[in-house]
Amino acid sequence: xxxxxxxxxxxxxxxxxxxxxxxxxxxxxxxxxxxxxxxxxxxxxxxxxxxxxxxxxxxxxxxxxxxxxxxxxxxxxxxxxxxxxxxxxxxxxxxxxxxxxxxxxxxxxxxxxxxxxxxxxxxxxxxxxxxxxxxxxxxxxxxxxxxxxxxxxxxxxxxxxxxxxxxxxxxxxxxxxxxxxxxxxxxxxxxxxxxxxxxxxxxxxxxxxxxxxxxxxxxxxxxxxxxxxxxxxxxxxxxxxxxxxxxxxxxxxxxxxxxxxxxxxxxxxxxxxxxxxxxxxxxxxxxxxxxxxxxxxxxxxxxxxxxxxxxxxxxxxxxxxxxxxxxxxxxxxxxxxxxxxxxxxxxxxxxxxxxxxxxxxxxxxxxxxxxxxxxxxxxxxxxx
Length: 384
Ligand SMILES: *Cc1c(COP(=O)(O)O)cnc(C)c1O
Hints:
It contains 13 helices and 14 strands. By secondary structure, the chain is an alpha/beta fold. It starts with a strand and ends in a 7-residue tail after the last helix.
């Protein structure tokens, strides 16, 4: 059976990238490796829309965020963590475990925080040294308006603007320099179209300055060491060489398409997915749906385990379930990274079949028709 992955990380890896990873390993302290790293570093700048360095760390996305906490702050300092789901929750727990004081800026799951709400929190905590925002809260399929939130942070506070763009970079518009961001982290296994194992961290000059005074205990995840090595396209420790070469190929693919074209493609795929979901009679979970992943309410009476087993075993489709309080209540369809229009036709067709098989009455083909209609409207597909 042909397996098709529709999960918000890991995401499918293009064939060209897989083949690149099959090449013989090269040594990392060589001119050959540094040439690859130089290209990766330059192309990461384009992806993050920054002239500042973007560091490559050998760890998953969470490691990249931890590296920012231990490199930028000092014990007892206050940070605000915007928390609207599983990942927001992690950015409350992680700095607490490190001995920072954390303001839990909780927002109801499925909702985004408004700039007005953040302004009130900033006013109540003028001593906050950093604010962490998740651009796409993957657990709820919710997009946060990073540009607007960054604007109010810069206006009302000296706190560093720190963004988890792990499930959004390459899909959601993000302009590191223009939006005045200080830290932005992404991971390899989402929009970047490579396997898990790398994190990428962009740092502003303000963040670099702040690092000089940071007294958090750290060694391996010291971004100052990574930044020093970065200037010669090097890393302080052995990098995951095969993943860096994969990133080289994947970034070239992404930039051939163009970053803005990639954002537009993700917007269209998400709109088509939402149209398909609505046409089969299902509703969205999020009030502010992301372009990376669509969270769908499971219809009443539909058993998630049985539905998911059908999708996987009968049709080879792997989607994601709900996490935490929405476990068994929602499912999530990713369209983040290596996806095209016909992938959306496929996944909605499979959802129609699995719903029918589960005894839910639907109009077969209605979802697929809506998906196709959305692409026609976007000026592509349907022979337009
Ligand atoms: C996947 C994800 C993470 C965690 O990344 P890991 O690579 O699993 O450490 C963090 N934040 C968001 C929004 C994610 O989607």
